[in-house]
Write a structure and sequence with these properties.
With 133 residues, this protein is α+β, with helices and mostly antiparallel strands. It has helices at 15-26, 41-49, 71-79, 97-115; strands at 7-10, 34-37, 61-64, 67-70. A four-stranded mixed beta sheet has the order 2-1-3-4, sandwiched between helices. The longest helix has 19 residues, at 97-115.
C-alpha cells in the first residue's frame, strides 16, 4: 500500500508514542503527515499487507513513498518532513543503525514503565481527525 502522504503507525496506548505524535503534528504545520494506531483497523491492514507483526508492538513505523521504515530509521526519515530545525535530525542517520536501534530498543522496552500506558487509543481532536486513518 502506498500513499502520497507519509503515514506514521504508532502504539495508540503508549503515552510516549502519543507525545511523539503530538510533536510531529506541532512541527508539521502543512499537515503532510498522516497517522494510524498500530491497533486500529487501518494500521492492522498496513501491517498485514507488509508482513509485519500485528501485535506486541515495540516500534513505530513509517510508510513513505511505498517504503517501510521502522525504529530509529522511521523517525530519522520522518524528520525530513518536519519544519526547521527538526529536519536536521536526519543527520543522525550517520550513526550506525545498530547503535541507533540499540538505544531505540532500550527506550521502547521501558516506555510503559517510564511514560505509562492508556487503556484505549488516543482520540484526536475534531480539527485533527482528518489526519488520522
Amino acid at each position: 500500500m502506498s500513499s502520497e502522504k507519509p503515514i506514521v503507525l504508532f502504539d495508540g496506548v503508549c503515552n510516549l508514542c502519543n507525545k511523539v505524535v503530538q510533536f510531529i503534528i506541532d512541527n508539521d504545520p502543512e499537515g503532510k503527515i498522516m497517522f494510524s494506531s498500530l491497533q486500529g483497523d487501518h494500521g492492522q491492514m498496513i501491517l498485514k499487507q507488509n508482513g509485519l507483526a500485528t501485535e506486541d508492538f515495540d516500534t513505530f513505523i513509517l510508510l513513505k513513498d511505498g517504503q517501510i521504515y521502522d525504529r530509529s530509521s522511521a523517525f530519522l526519515e520522518l524528520s525530513k518532513d518536519l519544519q526547521a530545525p527538526y529536519q536536521r535530525l536526519h543527520l543522525l542517520s550517520a550513526i550506525p543503525k545498530t547503535v541507533r536501534d540499540s538505544v531505540y530498543s532500550l527506550i521502547s522496552k521501558n516506555r510503559y514503565s517510564i511514560f505509562g500506558k492508556e487503556d484505549t487509543c488516543m482520540i484526536p481532536s475534531p480539527d485533527l481527525k482528518s489526519r488520522f486513518l
